[in-house]
Amino acid sequence: MTVELGIIEGFFGRPYSWIERADMVRALAPHGYGFYLYAPKADGYLRRRWREPYPEADLEALSAFARTCRDAGVRLGVGLSPYELFRGFDGPAKDLLAAKLAQLDSLGIADLGVFFDDMKGDLPELAARQVEIVHWIAARTSAQRLIACPSYYTDDPVLDRVFGQRPANYLEDLGAGLDAGIEIMWTGEEVCSREFSPGHLARVSDQMRRKPFLWDNYPVNDGPRMSQHLHLRAFTGRPGAIAEHISGHAVNPASQAVLSRIPALTLAESYAKGADYQYGAAFRRAADAVLGSALADAVERTLLLIEDTGLKGLDEDRKTRLRARFAAFDHPAAREIVAWLDGAFDLGAEELQTQ
Fold first, then answer.
1. Is 57 a residue whose pLDDT tops 70?
2. Chain-centre distance of CA 249, in angstroms?
3. Which residue of 57, 141, 153, 198 lies most exposed, with the fewest beta carbons within 10 A?
4. Widest CA span of the chain, in angstroms?
């Protein structure tokens, strides 16, 4: 059974450049990645500053990217996070939201995400308010598909500690209230789930009254802790058997656009091969395809250091030697590793709180 694969650029920190986005779309489209959801946390016009219209230059850049996606046969989506709109969905807010939707419609987007993640959600009537907002948007957008991300998008209790206790029966009420044609995103048993099992997904499907649309937080590496590591290994814990339990699978990539293609290719292979998938061999095939054999050898030999040990565990001598090793390669992925070693992708707690 096949599953719809795509990328969701939904991480904190420095977003991709338009060139990086276009290159990723062209590189992954031949491997079954059929959608790209543009939703970087750093784009304030989609989040805390959503009430402000996009400047013309930004809109032109998005429009050009939309053409790139269409040329590659990829659905472009935009993830709109109207920050805490559910606390005051009144006339003025509706007018501003309608104006933003009109701007997004002008791009000809195929998918529209309405994301309520990473904001306070401890309101007893939260689900009902969000259902009202999503249905209001659905009646006014020209996007072909609507994808909602709940405030509590995982079983993980960390969300309750950070954003307030989730209301009782929140997921069930959201699923019962939303039109059956609207997708609902889910990150699994954890924010960054180690695996997705058929049993877990079947249970969530019952709660949502529809199959979940996976927001998979691997190989994403944002935040003060994860930005110290490069997530390059092949996907595991996503057996092909889960295809019948989900409506789509969106990969939230790492801050390093080229390196992210390595695990992305292995996920496509996992679904294609099912029970015959072998993650070690899949990694090597993907690394060769993205990096070339020589750079793939260098990366494979240092996986324990760059993925497991991480920057904080490396002394300066080891960093210097690694930097020299990868600086010798004229390849964008090698330049991403060098920049990571130099601290260019470090992300502090302040960015998590302000983006």
1. yes
2. 10
3. 57
4. 60
Comparing CA positions, the residue from 306, 262, 186 lying closest to residue 24 is: 262
The CATH number of the domain covering residues in 5-279: 3.20.20.80
Give the SS3 label for residue 35: strand
Q: At a CB cut-off of 8 Å and minimum separation 6, what does 153 contact?
A: 117, 159, 185, 186, 187, 215
Let me know: does 260 contact 24? Beta carbons within 8 Å. yes
pTM: 0.96
Burial zone of 175 (CB within 10 Å; 0-12 exposed, 13-18 middle, 19+ buried): buried
Q: Which residue reads 């889960």 in tokens?
A: 242
* Model confidence pLDDT, tens digit, residues 134-158: 999 999 999 999 999 999 999 999 9
If we measure between CA atoms, which residue out of 64, 73, 59, 90 comes closest to residue 30?
73
The b-or-e profile of 87-122 (16+ CB within 10 A means b, else e) is eeeeeebeebbeebbeebeebebbbbbbbbbbbebe
| Domain boundaries, given as residue ranges, for the chain | 5-279, 289-354
- Tell which phi-psi region holds residue 64, choosing left (phi > 0), alpha (psi between -120 and 50) or beta: alpha
β-sheet bridge partners, residue 213: 185, 248
| CA angle 164–248–148, rounded 5-degree value | 35
Beta-strand relationship, 213-216 and 75-80: unpaired
Categorise residue 18: left if φ over 0, alpha if ψ from -120 to 50, beta otherwise. Answer: alpha
**Range 64-91 average pLDDT:** 94
- pLDDT tens for 108-134 read 999 999 999 988 888 899 999 999 999
Residues of the chain with pLDDT > 70, as a percent, come to: 99
Residue 3 — φ and ψ, nearest 5°?
-135, 145
189 and 159 Cβ atoms separated by less than 8 Å: no
CA distance linking residue 184 with residue 103, whole number of Å: 24
Backbone angles phi, psi at 303, to 5 degrees: -55, -40
